[in-house]
Amino acid sequence: MKLKLLLFVLALALMAGVALFRPCRAPAGEIASTYGYKVLEPIRHGNLTVFPVIAAKSHDTAEFITLDEGLRSGEVVVTESGNISPLMRPRHRHGQITPPQYGGGAQVNQLVLVNNSKRPLILLAGEIVTGGKQDRVIGKDRLVPAESDPIDMSVFCVEPGRWTGASAKFDSYNGAMAQPAVRGKAMAEKDQSQVWAEVGKTKESLSRMASPPAATAIGGTTSYARVMDNKEVKQQVDSVAEPIQHNYQSLIKQLRNQNAVGVVVAVGGQIVWADIFASTNLLEKYWPKLVRSYAAEAIVTKAKGYEADTKKAQEFLNQLQGRHETVDSEPGLYRHTEISGDGFRAFELTSLLPKTGFDLHIAKMAE
After folding, report:
1. Domain of 339?
2. Is the Cβ–Cβ distance between 367 and 345 less than 8 Å?
3. Does residue 20 lie within any of the structural domains?
4. Cβ distance 180 to 141 under 8 Å?
5. What is the pLDDT of residues 13-41, one digit of tens each?
């Protein structure tokens, strides 16, 4: 009798366990998200379609500072690699102050950053810094600790032809973000010549679309940032970006309780990119520069004659399992994971700071 009772209790426990850990199933016609993200109905304008993404959970990201915030406040300094000695904190050894020693000069794919703020700094691949001897684009997501020593930034030049500068320091130039085609070459290919080639394609396309005076101005600069800042180019980008920016900003406020955290992006009817953040707060900080980068991609891309739908956007976002992963990390600070899959690359920046352990940013590109 006792044996039968014991078997009955075990059977009930097993049934309860199966019910508890049963995977969530989406309603008929919907695609279940294995990462807790849900794609909503799109916002469209011209050649650009943006699918808002909400998450099951939004994390507390108040302790982090962005590059734009740090440069504006002066707490973050970016300079050429040959000018870092004045930025270094003296090191104390045996009671003596020993100034750090550095050699070498400026290099195309190297900049140095110091985070003097009391908060960890987020760097996103695609962010553009202007100044020094050449404008650069950041090639990889990473975290920089609070009150850091100088760190080597992985960058690519987006201003071929110039190697002079009155100042070695850099600015974020109105918070510019490279369009997905340029970001992708820096992040996935990690090849300077391919970054330059993509910048050249964009410049050529915009020049063909511009009036003769604007085309002359575009042709007279090698700076990607200044091409995008051309009055006519800005008007074209604004015509696409502003309606979507305002619509989504309004939607973010409405969806704050539902944790709006990112977007899936389609250009010319084809899904090309996704940016997902750990919180609504982080998304709001990056949204103005991101939407302009998407709009820049849209105005130089021909429409394909069809529209991406919500189902395809959800499928694109769900697929994050790849054939190969490359992991780079700084223990106790961050982990960067690059995932190569069938027709996509994904990049995850995970915070390893105390009381975090979550993905700060996920970028995904179609290939």
Report:
1. 30-85+103-366
2. yes
3. no
4. no
5. 333 333 333 333 333 333 434 468 999 99
